[in-house]
Specification:
255 residues, 8-stranded mixed sheet, 8 helices, globular
Length: 255
């Protein structure tokens, strides 16, 4: 029996599932350039026992992010499969997740809310430089995104008009088996009249999104002179890594 023969399906996540989802995201993003950059890593993260603490720091980041997204009323969906189709009470296994910020969402949170969600533990693991790295990444991408919208003839009041993909990831053993497309199709069907936007952090992710109708904006380079192509800090003149702001102007069944 194949791993996906139990008919995976999409549903809304529950709050008590956020910790499990954070663990899954840590495994899914273990080598992602943008997360390597935000973490300020000076060597790649591995699944070996010696890297447990560094992996734990990445998990704390996802715990924090998911809690803040929940408080912001983001739409968090998961792909699940039943553990045993003959025993409904056996429960489900979460194998993929997406987090969408709805149009007109405010991402401003008070300091107490951030602390309660785990910000201090994230900063302890990744250092105060995290704030500078976050600002550099967000500012660069936003500038390219708004420029791209203008080039496409779309209004630049994007935060009021689009669903933004804050996070999407799949358990490594289920990657390449259609979970990503399943989540995307569900989102497009849920809000067919809205624009969708996201940032791809790898060329393979960019190509997957393009297949689903997303249009790439200007390629932006993050961390040039500071990190290499994998987002790892380097003492040499680092190339930085590319990111691709993308937008899907309207719902088209292109899959």
């Amino acid at each position: 029996m194949s791993q996906t023969s139990l008919h995976p399906y999409v549903r809304l996540a529950r709050r008590d599932e956020l910790k499990y989802i954070a663990k899954m995201m840590q495994r899914a993003f273990i080598s992602d350039p943008s997360l390597n950059y935000l973490a300020g890593l000076n060597k790649p993260l591995t699944s070996k026992p010696r890297d447990y603490c560094r992996r734990r720091n990445l998990e704390k980041y996802f715990n924090y992010t998911l809690k803040q997204c929940w408080l912001s009323k983001s739409r968090i969906t998961v792909v699940v499969i039943p553990q045993d189709p003959q025993k409904p009470s056996s429960g489900e296994k979460i194998i993929s997740c997406s987090v969408w910020a709805p149009p007109k969402q405010s991402n401003t949170h008070g300091i107490l809310s951030c602390i309660r969600s785990g910000l201090i533990s994230v900063v302890c693991g990744w250092g105060l430089g995290l704030f500078k790295r976050v600002n550099a990444l967000v500012d660069t991408i936003e500038e390219a995104f708004y420029t791209g919208l203008d080039m496409l003839g779309m209004k630049s009041t994007a935060s009021e008009e689009y669903w933004y993909l804050q996070l999407v990831g799949t358990e490594p053993e289920y990657q390449g088996q259609g979970m990503f497309s399943l989540l995307m199709r569900e989102a497009f069907t849920y809000s067919p009249s809205f624009v969708f936007a996201l940032d791809a952090s790898t060329t393979s992710a960019r190509d997957k999104y393009a297949h689903l109708g997303f249009v790439p904006m200007e390629e932006v380079i993050i961390g040039k002179g500071k990190v290499d192509a994998n987002g790892i800090v380097t003492s040499k003149n680092g190339s930085g890594f590319p990111m691709y702001p993308m937008v899907k102007p309207e719902y088209e069944k292109s899959y």
